[in-house]
C-alpha cells in the first residue's frame, strides 16, 4: 500500500461525504474504471483494459472508504495501487 494518505483523495472523499449528507444517502458505490481512477487519484482496478469495470469497486460511507474486491486481487491492489485512504474488504 502507498504508505501515506493522499490529499487529493482526502478532498474527493470529503466532497462525496458532503454530498451523502446533503442528499440523505447512506453510501456511494463506484464501479466503473473512470470513477475508480477519479476517486483514488489515478489508481487502476482493471485487468482487461477494454472492460468498463475492473476487479474492485469502491464503497464510500460517512465514516469509511472501502475497496471491495476478491482475495486474489486484494494484496496486489493494496501493494501497487491504493493510497492509505482506503480499507480493503474481501468478499
Automatic annotation (TrEMBL):
Identification of the protein by name: Uncharacterized protein
Species of origin: uncultured Microcoleus sp
